[in-house]
Write a structure and sequence with these properties.
- The protein is built from twelve helices and no strands.
- By secondary structure, it is mostly helical.
- It has a domain at 11-125: Tetratricopeptide repeat domain (Serine Threonine Protein Phosphatase 5, Tetratricopeptide repeat, Alpha Horseshoe), CATH 1.25.40.10.
- Helix 3 runs antiparallel to helix 4.
- The chain is elongated.
């Protein structure tokens, strides 16, 4: 055999051997992977979670469900996957895993926890009042759904606290927009925003300011009667606040004949 041919033949043999080894190694690796039973897969995911490698743990819990979709372990893995995604900050994936669990096991005793994970994942995405508040409304809806379905759980108790904070956040957004309109001299648009706070978010920390801003805006529009009414509500509910003191001074200056009980600071 010519020297070139012998070299080519040797090269082909080496390639064939390497290819065979690669296929054999891959096959053995796949075989070992697929041979793992569901308990082994789940335990490995839990160990990864305990090591705080949350992203990998979520992927491993997903693999439990993928390989053994009809097992009891798969149901557990769905919740653990949601939790792992949540603590890693992958909120969309956490919501997806929890909602998938609820679609498959709506009557499960773990359902309250799944609803809680959905609500928390929305809640943790709430941004400052300068940003769009769509996610805040989604968090509020999810928290409300949890309370409506499972009112006597610990999850619902925590959800009630978070609802108050979410509502305060939405009220803060309305106030920011209202103040902007007020500075621009768009008093009617400002009044609509301040009225929204008073009517829809009356239990939030923004209500006293909203009432005082209504006094300012009504006076600016030449509607003193409405200004007096807003000041009266403010004085009745928040008599010791700085916002009532400001409204009191405004009413004295612009509506001196207002009833004393309406325009008297405590």
């Amino acid at each position: 055999m010519p020297r070139l041919s012998r070299s080519l033949a040797a090269s082909l043999v080496v390639v064939a051997l390497l290819s065979g080894c690669a296929r054999g190694g891959k096959a053995k690796k796949d075989q070992r992977y697929m041979a793992q039973d569901v308990e082994t897969l789940y335990s490995a995911a839990r160990e990864t979670l305990d090591r705080r490698n949350y992203k990998l743990a979520a992927a491993q819990f997903d693999e439990v469900e993928r390989q053994h979709p009809y097992s009891v372990w798969a149901r557990r893995a769905q919740l653990m996957s949601s939790f792992s995604y949540y603590v890693s900050g992958q909120y969309a994936e956490a919501i997806g895993a929890a909602q998938r669990f609820l679609s498959l096991h709506p009557g499960s005793r773990e359902a309250p926890y799944a609803y809680y994970m959905v609500a928390l994942s929305y809640y943790n995405q709430i941004m400052g009042v300068q940003k769009d508040q769509k996610i805040t409304q989604q968090a509020l809806d999810a928290l409300g759904e949890l309370i409506r379905r499972y009112p006597n759980t610990d999850y619902a108790a925590d959800a009630r606290l978070k609802i108050d904070l979410a509502r305060d956040h939405l009220a803060g957004k309305e106030m920011e927009i209202g103040r902007f309109y007020q500075k621009q001299g768009l008093f009617l648009a400002a009044i609509i925003r301040f009225r929204t706070v008073v009517d829809r978010f009356e239990t939030t920390s923004h209500t006293p300011e909203a009432l005082e801003r209504l006094v300012e805006s009504y006076l600016a529009m030449g509607i003193p009667e409405e200004a007096v009414k807003a000041a009266a509500v403010l004085g009745s509910n928040y008599p010791g606040s700085k916002w009532y003191e400001r409204s009191y001074r405004l009413i004295q200056r612009h509506v001196p004949d207002a009833p004393k009980k309406t325009a008297s600071a405590s």
